[in-house]
Specification:
The structure is a homodimer. Chain A has about 850 residues and is α/β, with parallel strands linked by helices. Chain A is built from 35 helices and 30 strands. In chain A, the strands form six sheets. In chain A, strands 11-21-20-13-14-15-16-12 form an eight-stranded mixed β-sheet. In chain A, strand 20 and strand 21 form a beta hairpin. In chain A, helix 14 packs across helix 19. Chain A is elongated, with a radius of gyration of 33 Å. Chains A and B meet through helix 25, helix 27, helix 28, helix 30 and helix 31 of A and helix 25, helix 27, helix 28, helix 30 and helix 31 of B.
């Protein structure tokens, strides 16, 4: 039994009590337009609770609802959810049309126009309210009169009732139907996927129709004032005579340009006064609503009505440009501009992107592991990638998975594609670090590395030299060359970054292993290098041979002799890095990987090595076998090598100090930071520190140069975090390596996690891949414990996070709260990190001040910008 | 300049103030003998501070020191350190001998006896006091008179002084020399190695000589009342006429048996009264000194003197037997008996040992990784070991290192020898678990597995079938068969264990994977099984094939079908286990290892597998390759398999429940405990729990049997420890796997740590191998955090530690303090654990009561028993 109840609703007037969180964003926006004196047709807003009551079966006082509108008014109903992005049921127009009005309007507007209005309503009512089969009401191609008759007949046949003629009954049914649609399961799931809470409410807006059909200039259109892809100012939109709603966007035939255009007629010419008014309205709306909006308008017999205005959907680059423009025009404060950009969206701006307009022939899909797009010819080896680069040809390196030996090839390639691996596989991590687009885990391809051939699932074969384009953002591999959009490091980007730096209160450094990385770090304005991994320096051809000689040396003296030959090369590496980073700190991690990574894995490689070292193959094979490890991640690496084969760290420390002294000699300054990896006990630090101290003293004496340097520890074992109080007295800084810390806290190798991580996330076992987003509950607690104990033992210890997580906004927030001094991340994550850090600082300030401004900021922060 | 000072000393009388920690153990013991009215010659004790002052150059009031002794007395000086085991300088006898007394004693004792006394003193003084070259004073073979003359001449030639004639000067020099020897570096290092503190003091005992030379029955000897190897009561010792000190032990020629003996003359016959008195004294000493002592005695012209009594050095089994006898005779309380045995020493009693008397030809040395000795013929494969066992022949399995595929071979072998690996390698852990003697890391052998040949460093070659004996305690590999002592699970052992169980307050379970292990667990009176690893069950020939089929199955239904065939085998495993363990809890860990452990590693194995599965070799190779992992320890194993391939756990749960129901049907009871391995997040437990719950319900319905069971979690990742509060609500017990927890806390694989662990311990980087002794600071904190949070979330959660550390006394102490309910360890560690747990409980009780008894117990606890 239906309950009779007085459901509240409000006419939208400048003073009515209407808010986004009670009546929805559309109702609120319409009120704003009305306050700006824009010609908005009469509108009534139903709040969330009214719609909820309707869905529950309560009745509406239709007489009261209809009273404000004239007896002959046609009405529209549109959804008004709290956030327009959450969607809602489609608008229904021309409510009130029935046989009588059809006859009346035929007289005033002409038969054709009246019929179009009636037909549109019958179709919408039948399909969306009465839930009849849409196909039966698809009367396209038929003449208007016949179509209307057919639609009315179909309605009667299907429902055994005449099409409802009472406008009050029509409106009541439309409202109830839209209310129920919102409560349906699939609608709820859809809006939840868009970020809405489970109990999000729906408001409805009942508006008097401005008819876009009839005599004089009548029609409808939309207008916007910037390009939604580039963000450049322009007047853009469509207008279609004798149309309603957003018809102009759907039906291009006969649509008018807005501004004068050599290609055809324009609204500017057809209805210059309306056009001028629209431009004026647009300016007012932008200034007063403080946003780039798209305006929906109707001209009824030469008279302009503004029906609605919605936030313009923009590409990330257009959003950034328009938001910065709002701030530069003094419409919004810079702080608000900063908070309107989702930091993650910046990533897209730093890399070329596939033109969204371009056609895509998708050959294959994998995981988009390093963003950006690249076109190149397929190569299957690192050497081929380098050869291609040398010839100025772009290559896409295709591997089953990558190893440290591939790194130089990855640098040379335009993009990387692997069959195996997850978001944190070697390929993914390295590619993100050096900013090369990368797709991993493209397991649907069958890779024949001997024949240099890829077989796709449909049997097609790709070979060496074939041209492909990879989209490291979406994970798609496309055939051939596809048009790309270049990165957008424009003035707007730079302004935003400058503002971010002024607002943030945690340092951002970059992880940079090579001079190229270091230059990138400077480009993105990182405050120094937070992690320079030195092992890559040993994979170059000439050095690799020396490394192998060193590994095969029997006595410490022999090892030292080989390392003596590596010293000048390593010193030159550091000098170049220091030159680039002049005036900024450079944190160098001492040699970390297990030695077997430097030894050949193939039989052929072993044979070559035996030849190079002039040893019997069996000897070489045995030594290589003996160095193999069950779990290399948990084996003889990091400081364990530094202690058992101290000559390596001795050489590295000397190279660092000699380079530092050389810079000092030339009048520059650099304060190198030396970081010991994989520490688990205090004594490890003491032993290494003693040797480094004495190397520093020796270099000071030898060169006659004085220089400063700092020693720190990379906290990447759970034990080091727990024992940070022990360790800190010997460490001027503690830099938390969250990758390894995550591996060890979970007992999960990032290289092996790929096989089940997606399933784990899908089943909700993990909320998210902990290698992707910092696990604040587990790994985060280790960080907190380490930071707290480290600082308790040494008040001035510098605390940092380096590694993949460093650039993630969530990690930055966590680190700020835990009192860390800086985070370090891939150069390409630096802008993201700078913006995210600024947002957190502003958010905190807003929370502290509780001023009006900050209240408003809080509203903005409460949900992500588009 | 030497200072003159009055240094304190005391004559040893029943009422003198003498204590072991001021005057040393020997002085204290002599006082006790005097209190018992034993004929101890007059004795003066110099306390530690006196000896320290002497060494520092202070002077002694010799007149006062010598006063109590008659003017013609000869004196001895012996060391008296706080603990006799710490050693000290050798005794010096016959102080006071000079030319005049030589002449006088020649008259009273005869020339020969007097000369012997003088010569002995001159030699000792020259070598130990004047520090002259010992070779010059080695006058063996010369006639007494000539020897004395030569010694005096040599002294004069070397020192340019006459041999000192003043008894006061002689004694003063002897005392100072012994004082200084104690302070020397090498003496200090030696006693520190024996457990003495750096500042341990030395007391000295000056005693009037009872001369063992001269007229009538004169001589010296030692006597003890049990066998020092077996602990059996007996009268054992030697007596030598016309001798001094412990000569009877050194020089067997002419020595007498103590009791009547068909082989020769005896003291019992030669001096029956002295003999009877000695037996009586022995009884008194044992009762009143509450210890098995060895008595040093001298007969001077038919009169018996007791010079000294020292704690008898015994083998572990003799110690145990004698201590239990003391308790059973009511001489010491059982609690004290329990505290006198070092739990570690029990290990030796549980395994055959190489007879310490037997000659040893050491071929090779490695790390003694699993105690006990075994003789057998060399085999190089697990299959050969099984074949040898089938033929009733003992085999020693020699491998480079072992893998899970070798486990059955290890069960079949008498002993295991590997070239690689450390104390926690696969071979070591498994061998300890199943109680098979094992030596690992015998890297000096060159192993040719193709030719089935071992080449030793000296070029000797051992082949298949050669007989060797391995000593898993010492790590020695001996040639041929060597006589062994059988294990000593005798009445004394059982009594001690019974007393321990009455005293301890933490549960002890055993890790047991097989029925054999389970029987062993019952033998050693474990309170149930704390860890039953199920993966071994899948390595048997018929099962391995099914496992491989399961791994190669494409669809869940196919996997389930194969597992259906494994179900009855697995059910039978559990039924057998439950039968053996009737009435005790059995904690079963669900399948844990990565699947690739079940796949062949060799090309031949792959070919066989392809044949068995009727698949192309390339397919099989590809699948096997695809399952390989970079870090298997951190990969797809444990609950990760349980979630991604749930059919395995489904089958195991069903097998467990069906076996439980079958036992119930037969009228028995068993409460299986099901443990989920490698958990890192709450949701993992929830998902597995849901499936197991429904399997239990299904089996209840199908069988009509009701049964109880418990679900728990193995906490072996740091994250699981940190999140124990999250996990406990779904877990009735939390069992901490300290092996994996150690691996992950340190970021250190136990399989790979062997390469540098010894160096790390030697350099003091780690105090001890953390896989061997629980790292209480790091891993221990994770245990504490996990226990605390688990219990806070669920008050009745059962807390346990399983794995290698479980049986270590240090870990048991840690777990008791942290409030754990039980520890679980290898069956062979169970007795050690039971005793250690009892000691900790007694120690705590003693600390609480502070009674006299407990004070005394505390003294005993303060240092380990022999």
């Amino acid at each position: 039994m239906q309950k009779k109840h007085s459901i509240a609703f409000t006419e939208v007037t400048p003073t009515a009590k209407i808010a986004a969180d009670t009546h929805g964003g559309r109702a609120k926006c319409l009120q704003r337009l009305i306050r700006l004196d824009l010609p908005v047709p009469r509108t009534i807003a139903l709040p969330f609770e009214a719609v909820h009551a309707l869905a529950a079966g309560e009745m509406l006082d239709m007489k009261r609802l209809l009273a404000p509108f004239g007896p002959d008014a046609l009405l529209s109903v549109r959804p008004s959810s709290e956030d327009p992005d959450w969607g809602g049921p489609g608008a229904i127009l021309n409510i009130g049309m029935n046989d009588a009005r059809h006859a009346a309007l035929s007289r005033s507007l002409g038969r054709e126009a009246a019929t179009a209005l009636y037909l549109r309503f019958v179709q919408a009512f039948a399909v969306h309210v009465a839930r009849l089969d849409a196909e039966m009401f698809d009367q396209r191609g038929e003449d208007g009169e016949a179509a209307l008759a057919a639609a009315l007949a179909a309605y009667e046949a299907e429902t055994d009732e005449q099409f409802p003629q009472d406008p009050a009954h029509q409106l009541s049914e439309v409202l109830r139907s839209m209310a129920r649609a919102w409560e349906g399961t699939s609608a709820r799931l859809l809006r939840q996927a868009r970020g809405a809470p489970a109990d999000a409410g729906l408001g409805l807006v009942v508006q008097q129709m401005a008819l876009g059909v009839g005599p004089g200039e009548s029609g409808s259109g939309v207008i916007q004032f910037i390009d939604e892809t580039t963000g450049e100012p322009c007047i853009k939109g469509r207008y279609l005579s004798q149309s309603q709603g957003r018809d102009a966007l759907v039906q291009s035939k006969g649509a008018l340009y807005l501004t004068k255009d050599p290609r055809g007629p324009s609204l500017e010419e057809r209805a210059p006064e309306c056009f001028t008014a629209l431009i004026e309205y647009g300016r007012t709306i932008r200034t007063r609503l403080r946003e780039e909006m798209q305006i929906e308008f109707t001209i009824e017999n030469g008279r302009l009505h503004v029906l609605d205005a919605v936030r313009l959907r923009r590409s990330p680059r257009a959003l950034l440009r328009s938001v910065v423009a709002l701030a530069e025009d003094g419409i919004i404060p810079r702080e608000e501009a900063l908070c309107r950009i989702d930091p993650h969206a910046l990533t897209e701006l730093l890399h070329p992107q596939i033109d969204p307009e371009a056609p895509r022939e998708v050959l294959l899909e994998g995981l988009g592991a390093s963003p950006g797009a690249a076109t190149g010819r397929i190569v299957f080896t690192a050497e081929a990638a380098q050869a291609a680069e040398a010839q100025g040809e772009g290559a896409i390196l295709v591997r089953r998975e990558t190893t440290p030996e591939d790194v130089r090839g990855m640098h040379a390639a335009r993009g990387v594609l692997t069959e195996k691996g997850g978001m944190t596989s070697h390929a993914a991590v390295i590619a993100r670090g050096i900013g090369v687009p990368c797709i991993v885990g493209a397991s649907a391809m069958s890779l024949d590395l001997r024949e240099h051939r890829i077989t796709l699932e449909d049997g097609r074969v790709l070979g060496e030299g074939d041209l492909i384009t990879i989209d490291g953002t979406s994970g798609e591999v496309l055939g051939g060359a596809v048009p790309l959009l270049e990165p957008a490091l424009d003035d707007a980007f730079n302004s935003l970054m400058r503002w971010a730096d002024a607002a943030r209160d945690i340092g951002i450094r970059a992880n940079a292993d090579t001079p190229g990385d270091a230059r990138m770090a400077r480009t993105f304005a990182a405050e120094g290098i937070g992690l320079c991994r030195t092992e890559h320096m040993f994979f170059e051809e000439d050095r690799l041979t020396l490394m192998r000689e060193m590994i095969f040396a029997d006595a410490p003296e022999d090892r030292a002799a080989v390392l003596e030959r590596l010293l000048p090369l390593q010193r030159a590496d550091f000098e170049e890095l220091f030159e680039i980073m002049q005036g900024q700190p450079v944190c160098i991690r001492l040699f970390d990987p297990p030695l077997h990574e430097f030894l050949p894995a193939t039989r052929e490689g072993l044979r070559e090595l035996a030849e190079a070292l002039d040893l019997p193959l069996s000897d070489v094979t045995r030594r290589v076998e003996a160095l193999k490890e069950f779990n290399p991640m948990l084996g003889m690496r990091g400081v364990r090598l530094g202690i058992t084969i101290p000559e390596i760290y001795d050489m590295q420390a000397r190279a660092i100090f000699e380079a530092t002294a050389e810079i000092a000699r030339k009048g520059g300054t650099v304060v190198p930071e030396i970081m010991i990896p994989l520490v688990s006990a205090r004594r490890e630090v003491e032993i290494v520190k003693t040797r480094i101290d004495s190397t520093a003293a020796a270099v000071r004496t030898e060169t006659g140069q004085d220089f400063a340097w700092r020693l720190g520890v990379m906290v990447e074992t759970p034990r080091a975090a727990l024992r940070a109080g022990d360790i800190a007295p010997n460490a001027e800084f503690l830099s938390f390596g969250t990758n390894d810390l995550t591996q060890m806290a979970y007992g999960l190798s990032r290289d092996d996690a790929g096989r089940f991580m997606s399933q784990y996330v899908r089943l909700g076992v993990f909320d998210e891949d902990p290698f992707h987003r910092l696990d604040t509950e587990g790994v985060g607690e280790l960080l907190m414990i380490g930071a707290e104990r480290g600082r308790a033992a040494r008040g001035d210890v510098v605390l940092a996070v380096c590694g993949e997580h460093g650039g993630n906004p969530e990690s930055i927030e966590f680190c700020r709260k835990a009192g860390f001094d800086y985070v370090s991340c891939s150069p390409f994550r630096v802008p993201v990190a700078r913006l995210a850090a600024a947002q957190f600082a502003l958010r905190e300030a807003a929370g502290r001040k509780k001023s009006k401004l900050s209240q408003r900021l809080m509203e903005v922060f409460a949900r992500p910008a588009e």
